[in-house]
Amino acid sequence: MDEKIQNKPQEKSKETTQPTIDRLVVSSSPHFSTGDSVPKIMHAVILALLPASAASIYFFGLNALLLGLTCVIACMLTEYAIQKIRRKPITVWDGSAIITGILLALTLPPAFPLYAAALGSIVAIGLGKQIFGGLGYNIFNPALLGRAFLQATYPVMITTWSEPLTKAAKHGIDAVSAATPLALMKFVEPKVMTPHLDLFFGNVAGSIGETSAFAIILGGLYLRYKGYINWKMPLGYLGSIAFFGWLFYLANPQKYPDPLFHILAGGAMLGAWFMVTDMVTSPTTSVGQWIFVVVAGFLVVIIRLLGGLPEGVMYSILLMNAITPLINRHTKPKVFGEGNQS
Amino acid sequence: MANNNQSLWHEFKKGLWDEIPPFRLVLGTCPTLAVTNSVINGIAMGLATLFVLLCSNISVSAIRKIVPSEVRIAAYVVIIALYVTVADMFLAAMFPPISKALGPYVPLIVVNCIILGRAEGFAQKHPIVPSIMDALGIGIGFIMSLIVMGSIRELLGFGSILDIKLLGNWFEPWIVMILPAGAFFVFGFLVALTNYLSRKKATETHGH
């Protein structure tokens, strides 16, 4: 019994997660093997995360580097320890734990304590992934689950932001606490709108890896080029955020930010390219993916503009992760020859 | 006689592990999740439940031959509601802060599946003395469960147990543990742990 389960995760993630328009087509046999394997895809994702990681170090310095290292090491150790205890094959080097670590670190504020980051990593891998049976079985995006845990566990620490070093240097000091563009838009009177160009390059306060849209898009384009993500998920998500944001903007341009602000600020970019597109936790069918991104984008705008929190990307994706199995079940393609009966 | 004592002891003991309500029977999970953000709340809730369980088991067992089976559930609910009202008023009069902290969960003991379950599943078919032992076992098992849940959550969520500070100032409380999400985490872990331990126990006894 156990033997069977052991081998399954990798096989499953291979067959159900062949991505891209050409490759992410769920169909009946005969099939070609693309030669992709879990480690190969994961290493491409790690490569794609490098620009965002580099930007985080550029803007937030040593803290960002330490956060990244802490999360990656803690994630790998947790994965190793759990697999060792459960006597499962050790898959630490397939790269998925490294990605979880990097993604989690990128969503943390610059001055976040390292022990808390390590705790978040343990929860991300332990509760987010291994408890469900490992890669391929997790319901939620592990990095986001770790982040959500930290949000509930250390609500003050995780909302303590500081200016990027590039700006702090102007004041001649090391660190200046500051509000994020979304908080400035939402909680400060009169409203402060951060210029789009600053948002695009990342010269603003925020989670270390979420500020620079430019660096994230670079990584995302690389993943698209490699064929591991499709256009639909990231652009659909951003488009949905922009569309619903635009509706609010039309209703009251003084009160609500413009659509471009919505997709450049906060975690929208990182979420769109690296979390919505997670192969395991997003729907496999085309219709299902559309449902996922449209509803998630709607949730982001609702939470940002009407909810109590400044940012809604994390919860929007986690909520949609939760109903992904349902979406998959109800958008199942017809079996060939099934006819009109259902 | 020895045999009789043994079976009484068995009725008592099963509630402490084999049928420990929240973790093995997965009954009474609502109060288990809702009131265990501190140990003292857990103990109060557990005692209130034990009182109601004991009294209702005795009453149901005593009238088991009189009540027609068509209306038995209604009769149980009336009996249970009586004792719940007593417990609720007693707490409100003697321990107002605890009564306030427990909120609607004391009145909700009326629909607690542990109590209805014991009335329907045990007291209705057994004489008074075994019913008492059954109620004591299950009730104490329930209190133990709440204390364990409450200890873990209070320790991590406030750094204290029974308001005694155990973790120093270095410890940054995990707010999540006193939120509902933390209750589900701890509950899940404890269910997994009890299952793991009893499975281990089972293989050990069968293996040899």
Global outline of chain A: globular
The succession of helices and strands of chain B, N to C, reads HHHHHHHHEEH
Query: How many beta-strand elements of chain A?
Result: 0
- Determine the fraction of residues in helical runs of chain A and give it as a percent range: 55-70%
- Please summarize the sheet with the most strands of chain A: none
Question: What oligomeric state do these chains adopt?
Answer: heterodimer
Low-confidence stretches of chain A: 1-21
Number of strands of chain B: 2
* Helix-strand sequence of chain A: HHHHHHHHHHHHHHH
List keywords for this structure.
heterodimer, A: 342 residues, mainly alpha, Ammonium transporter fold, B: mainly alpha, two-stranded antiparallel sheet, 70% helix, globular
How would you portray this structure in words?
The complex is a heterodimer of chains A (342) and B (208). Chain A has helices spanning 2-16, 38-60, 62-85, 96-106, 114-126, 142-153, 165-171, 181-187, 196-201, 213-226, 232-251, 259-264, 268-275, 286-306, 313-330. Chain A has 342 residues and is an all-alpha fold. In chain A, helix 2 packs antiparallel against helix 3 and helix 3 runs antiparallel to helix 4 (96-106). Chain A is globular. Chain A starts with a helix and ends in a 12-residue tail after the last helix. Chain B has a two-stranded antiparallel ribbon. Chain B contains nine helices and two strands; from the N terminus they run ααααααααββα. Helices cover 70% and strands 2% of the residues of chain B. The model of chain B has no long low-confidence stretch (mean pLDDT 89). Chain B has helices spanning 2-14, 21-25, 29-34, 39-62, 72-94, 96-102, 113-121, 128-158, 180-207, and strands at 160-161, 164-165. Chain B has one domain. Chain A binds chain B through residues 113, 116, 127, 149, 152-155, 157, and chain B through 172, 174-177, 179, 181-182, 185.
